[in-house]
Design goal:
12 strands; alpha/beta; globular; eight-stranded parallel beta sheet
């Protein structure tokens, strides 16, 4: 006997009892399997519901989700760096599946093994389909100083440098030198910097206008810079900082980079113990200050979070959604009208 389908969620529906019974009979004679669906559809379903447990349900599913699980890789510890190095250097399939890679700041702690930048440089050389990369400068420095050819696939990636790039490195033969200059003077440094189109400096940059080497980045089209954390209790300084950043972009970046399109100033949430009280500024105020810089002004983006905020978690969530800092900023500014 057919069930009563005369109402569905309070709305009447009309059906043919004979047709319904025919459908039930046909379905009872044919077993449905996930393998009956197109592989592309199954992959998309699994991509939306991916988990470690799901990959263990069967060998067929594990094989199918293998490239999905490696598409976005976040390395939080030295142990993970070593394990991932062993994986991608022994499996071309694993290396080719990696699309975005982020190496957390906590990996670069004082007393780090000298081999660590070399291991990450090997990973970057192996992952030939990278679209986006976030790491400190050291592994890129190793690649640029190597006698081997610079990996061509890294000439088109979106680069995020997680360390404070406006600081100077220890004295060299000619005295103090900026990190930018030291990289540019390496064997492959000028060629690498000259091909970067998307650059996110996620560290805090106190003197952006004075230290940013726009002349080294002629093909730069998108720039994002992390703001100063200590100003979250001084709201009156934000509009000044935004205005100064906009002037620096106009005077240095737009003039040197003929195809430049967008600059984003990123405001992080506070994470110090004495910032437990509510902030004295609203994101709308920052957006208003950015719009006041003119039609060719800058974008601002306020990262949501609190004391336990982690830049790596923000990147991980954004990468999983197919977003970058520029699309996030445009969306937030459009919302905060």
């Amino acid at each position: 006997m057919s069930p009563d389908l005369s109402k569905f969620h309070g709305r009447p529906i009309y059906y043919s009892s004979f047709l319904y019974d025919e459908i039930l009979e046909a379905n009872s004679q044919q077993e449905f399997s996930l393998k009956d669906l197109p592989v592309e559809l199954v992959a998309r379903i699994l991509e939306l519901s991916i988990s470690r447990a799901l990959a263990l349900t069967s060998a067929w599913i594990a094989e199918l989700v293998f490239p999905i699980r490696l598409a976005h890789v976040l390395l939080r510890t030295r142990k993970q760096v070593r394990s991932f190095h062993a994986l991608v250097c022994s499996s071309d399939r694993a290396a080719g599946a990696v699309k975005t890679l982020w190496v957390c700041d906590c990996v670069w702690t004082p007393g780090e093994p000298a081999s660590l930048p070399t291991l990450i440089a090997d990973v970057l050389r192996a992952c030939s389909h990278l679209d986006s990369l976030g790491c400190a400068l050291a592994p890129l420095q190793r690649l640029c100083t190597s006698d081997e050819p610079f990996p061509s696939h890294l000439l088109s990636v979106h680069v995020t440098l997680t360390e404070q790039m406006s600081l100077r490195t220890p004295p060299g033969p000619v005295g103090w030198i900026s990190k930018w200059d030291r990289l540019q003077q390496t064997m492959h440094g000028a060629g690498f910097l000259g091909t970067i189109t998307h650059l996110y400096l996620s560290g805090h940059h106190y003197q952006f206008g004075d230290t940013f080497p726009a002349e080294y980045l002629p093909h730069l089209t998108h720039l994002a810079v992390g703001s100063e954390r200590d100003w979250s209790r001084q709201p009156w300084m934000y509009s000044t900082y935004i205005r100064d950043f906009a002037r620096a972009v106009d005077s240095r970046v737009r003039r040197a980079c003929g195809s430049f399109q967008a600059a984003v100033l990123v405001f992080r949430p506070p994470d110090r113990w004495y910032y437990d009280a509510p902030l004295q500024w609203e994101p709308r105020e920052l957006v208003r200050a950015a719009r006041n810089c003119g039609p060719d002004g800058i974008l601002v983006y306020c990262i949501a979070g609190g004391r336990k905020f982690r830049q790596s978690r923000f990147w991980d969530e954004a990468a999983a959604d197919g977003e970058d800092i520029w699309s996030l900023a445009r969306g937030q500014m459009a919302f905060l009208v």
